[in-house]
């Protein structure tokens, strides 16, 4: 992937209204791999107990893995996700989601992600499948 393609991808993700509301930022991009982070705010991301709402984790996993598919030239929609919630954090923490492509088939892509805290402690582990609806020109390289 060229630097121009990477910058276009980051701009596209970070200009997305859902990503803006959730304060998602792309931190790493390469073909078949993507990392994003979210700084957890009490006002936007927590449940009634003050911990990160599970929907924040699932939205982050879905977004990171879907955009990861884009890095391999595929436009996708989510088929399924299986997330294991292992540990949680409170407001003020930053969480990081690392996504990778496991399989790029003709119609379906399978991905894996892990969400960790600042100390790299595992919070969520997941596998997600996506249906390929088209191709995305990501350039050469």
Index terms:
single chain; 28% helix; six-stranded antiparallel beta sheet; 4 helices; globular; alpha+beta; 141 residues
Could you explain the architecture of this structure?
The protein is of the alpha+beta class and 141 residues long. It is built from 4 helices and 6 strands. The chain has helices spanning 3-14, 17-22, 42-45, 54-70; strands at residues 24-30, 33-39, 74-85, 94-104, 108-116, 122-135. A 6-stranded antiparallel beta sheet has the order 1-2-4-5-6-3. A hairpin with a 5-residue loop joins β5 (108-116) and β6. The model has no long low-confidence stretch (mean pLDDT 95).
In short:
28% of the residues lie in helices and 43% in strands. The chain has helices spanning 3-14, 17-22, 42-45, 54-70; strands spanning 24-30, 33-39, 74-85, 94-104, 108-116, 122-135.
Protein topology:
Layout lengths: L2 H12 L2 H6 L1 E7 L2 E7 L2 H4 L8 H17 L3 E12 L8 E11 L3 E9 L5 E14 L6
Antiparallel strand pairs: 1-2, 2-4, 3-6, 4-5, 5-6
Quick check: average pLDDT? 95
The end-to-end span amounts to 5 Å
Structural class: alpha+beta
Amount of helix: 25-40%
């Amino acid at each position: 992937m060229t630097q121009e393609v990477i910058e276009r991808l980051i701009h596209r993700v970070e200009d997305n209204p859902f990503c803006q509301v959730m304060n998602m930022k792309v931190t790493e991009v390469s073909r078949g791999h993507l990392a994003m982070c979210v700084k957890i705010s009490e006002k936007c991301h927590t449940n009634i107990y003050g911990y990160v709402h599970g929907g924040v984790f699932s939205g982050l996993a879905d977004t990171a893995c879907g955009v990861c598919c884009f890095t391999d030239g595929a436009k996708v929609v989510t088929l399924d996700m299986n997330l294991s919630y292992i540990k949680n954090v409170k407001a003020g923490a930053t969480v990081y989601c690392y996504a990778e492509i496991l399989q790029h088939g003709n119609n379906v892509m399978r991905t894996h992600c892990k969400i960790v805290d600042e100390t790299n402690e595992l919070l969520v582990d997941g596998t997600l499948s996506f249906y390929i609806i088209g191709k995305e020109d990501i350039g050469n390289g």
